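Single Protein Entry

Contents — chain, fold
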Amino acid sequence: MRIIRPGSRGEDVRDVQQRIVALGGTIEPNELEGLYGQSTEAAVRAFQQKRGLLADGMVGPETWGALVESGYEFGDRTLYLRIPYFRGDDVRALQRRLNALGFDTGREDGIFGPQCDQAVRDFQKNVGREADGIVGPETYQALARLRPPLDATGRAHVREAASLREDSTIQGAVVAIDAGHGGKEPGTEGPGGLVEAEATLEIAQAALVELARRGAKPTLLRAGREDPAAGERAKAANDRRADICISIHLNDGDPTAEGAACMYFGTDESVSPAGQRLAETIQEELTSRLGLRDGRTHAMTIAILRETRMPAVQVEPCFITNPREEELLREPAFVKDVAIAIASGVERYFLPENPG
């Protein structure tokens, strides 16, 4: 699909507008015939922020997918395991209900994958239904009758939280490292001409060396100028059975904006405890070791965090649009320090968490 941005016109813009309005967004009448103007951009940004997406005001594959998924409510359609997997808010609502009843769907990510299928079958067997994995009227009715407590903590959350208190080590841990952008999607260019895709690859390569030095088994998800889609990067991390995944990007914004931030998977209803812990340990290292402004950690639902089956974070150590931080990113010593901070955060993550 084309990237829809301010100034775009057409039926695809009208489709976006109709979906935004159906979700309660406000768009000025003079734009509703397919003009991507200021009110449309503001409504898209508000939607992106609510959904935990990059709030850039443009509609690319991730935002479009989120718009489609948000249109499905619990019970709207029959769900079952298929390829490609069903995705949507209805799937997330199903996962929340099954998890609340003790049937382990895994992460509440809105993706109907094999673990969700098994949880459905276990539930159906438990209530005396045919365990066919098809979520149709009978299964919906059975779930509605049981009235699961939707504020209950799911098994996936409990399992992840418990794993943080177990003895583990960085030795032999498979760490997937994703250098953001690449190829035809170079990312943001700094005021001095530094290209995000090139800078993230340098940081990723330096992190690979530092992690290997500490005994981990790092692997790059992008080694050159190619630009795999976010879902393909997540699949590569899954296929390599990574223990954790680190995606490296650079922030952008006002030239005065500065500092580091880390993102982990999370929605308004649930988060990944392990992903949050990993984001926090890396963020603490970036700010304490390098003296960077603390942009904090944030829950998001972008594909590299949502579709990976292991704890994953997106690390943004600097604003490439800040002239001073862009110059820092050109310095090999600073790049190495960023890599050391990331590796130190990873090493701390593997230490057992104090249960108190």
In short: The chain has a mean pLDDT of 94.
